[in-house]
Amino acid sequence: MTNYVIKRLLLAVPVLFGVVILVFFMVRLTPGDPAVIMAGEQASEAEIELIRVQLKLDQPLHIQLGLFLENLIQGDLGRSTRSRAPVTSEIMTRFPNTLILMLTAMAIATLVGVTTGVISAVKQYSFFDAAAMFVALIGISMPVFWLGLLLMLYFSVNLGLLPAAGSGTWKHLILPSIALATVPTAIISRMTRSSVLEVLRQDYIRTARSKGLRENAVIIQHALKNAIIPVITVVGLQAGTLMGGAVLTESVFNWPGLGRLMVDSILARDYPVVQGAVLLLAVVFIFVNLLVDILYALFDPRIRYD
Amino acid sequence: MTFKTIWRQLRRNKLALFGLAIVVTFILMAIFAPWIAPDDPFDQNLRQSVEAPSSENPFGRDELGRDILSRVIYGSRISLTIGLISVGIGVAVGVPLGAISGYFGGIVDLLVQRLMDIMLAFPAMLLAIVLVSILGKNLTNAMIAIGIVSIPMYARLVRSSTLSIKENDFVQASKAVGRKDMGIITAHILPNLLSPIIVQSTLQVASAILWAAGLGFLGLGAQAPIPEWGAMLASGRDFIRHAPHVVFFPGLAIMITVFGLNLLGDGLRDALDPRMKL
Lengths: 306, 278
Known about the structure:
The complex is a heterodimer of chains A (306) and B (278).
Chain A: H1 2-29, H2 34-39, H3 45-54, H4 61-73, H5 87-122, H6 127-141, H7 144-158, H8 170-200, H9 203-210, H10 215-253, H11 258-267, H12 271-299
Helix pairs in contact in A: 1-12, 5-6, 5-8, 5-10, 5-12, 6-8, 7-8, 7-10, 8-10, 9-10, 10-11, 10-12, 11-12
Chain B: H1 3-11, H2 14-31, H3 33-36, H4 68-104, H5 106-120, H6 124-135, H7 139-165, H8 169-176, H9 181-192, H10 194-218, H11 229-236, H12 245-272
């Protein structure tokens, strides 16, 4: 197991490095002069020159990369061209908000998704099964920002039950996390259903039943324990869906998270902040994937010997 | 597998047929938009701003007094184009990459796979946003960005299938009689990959439409006055309190289209590749 973890950690290093390089080139690949783009259309020649010097855009590319890496290791991602604040503090004040939103959505999705999936599988071809899977397919097809707007319309504008936008209280968290949880819930419930169905066909389930175990014990102790492995992977894979969805959800509900900061910064051409936000999200995503792989190996010893 | 057998399988699946009907309607709507749209999608009429749905304008009018039904109909053209072009990019680049990577193995495989790893290190929507911020925000770049995002998905799929197909006797026999590698790939490997590629592409068009609408909504995709469904939602959201129809219909159009594509994709997967049945 230790060997496996070390191997996976080592494999993540080149990917991490690749991501850093890509983020470095983000600004430099933009068509046109990045200094002019960042300074804005009305900027004077002196202002453009200042940005060029500040970002070391006047240096050769390999020196720029060296400096970028050196600063990165020291946790220095430069300063926002809008607020002049250090990028690290800008993204770190926003990151917890995104994390809360994502974790709440993930908790809802796992709880609802796994429960629905198990019931659907146990009662295969029942009305519940058909209805749940139909709703799940609609959930997958639903644009998260549209669902967000509809929830806002119904629960905030029409019923006046919950705040339409903003943050601060737990009430603000409800609508955005439901909107964000929809797609992962649908995917997890479909995966759980097919995984449980697969396991229910196995001989050891027949054995468990024939030795007179109650159906609940068969499902929970024997079926679910084995069916959960592919479900863990799918839950982990939803981290990506959640991040993409979070950008949109934050924008709908004016949630002060990293995704909205990133989009606002792209629109304002505040590239240092965009780079910081992208880098942080990608690193988190890589580590979540790593964690899923390791958990997977922990639950299923067969993986380790591949 | 011939077209006839696929159709025979698909015909038995009522949900997939329903999906097919939605997709065909969507395509016909896109092709015949100028003939079926009741109004010019760009024609502004500020005095009728955010007018509620009526018999004259079944979907109502938007903030600039444009007929929403006509804009939704024209929007299908945009979404269809987005789907086809971005999936086209994904297939055109991802399939050869995956085939070469899987067939030759070695250093080529290693390099291609690490590159794909880096692309997959970003959640899809995030990578699309990053690419648009590099390329510049407009509809064409959104399509290119989404196309690039789908490359690793095809490369992975094709690589793993190529690995198993190349071990088959017919491939080894072809090698033994001296056929060139590229000939083997095009004559033996790729035709056997058609089914998974078709399934993946149907589902990928659905994702592409969703991502493009997301980019449009964030202001990073189609720009005004293009009647793209996501961008329509974004410009209408400020009027949601008094005129919810402005955001309701474009969103509904996205959902129904994506739903149809997902149903069809699921049905095709069951018909073409029963092992992958969910």
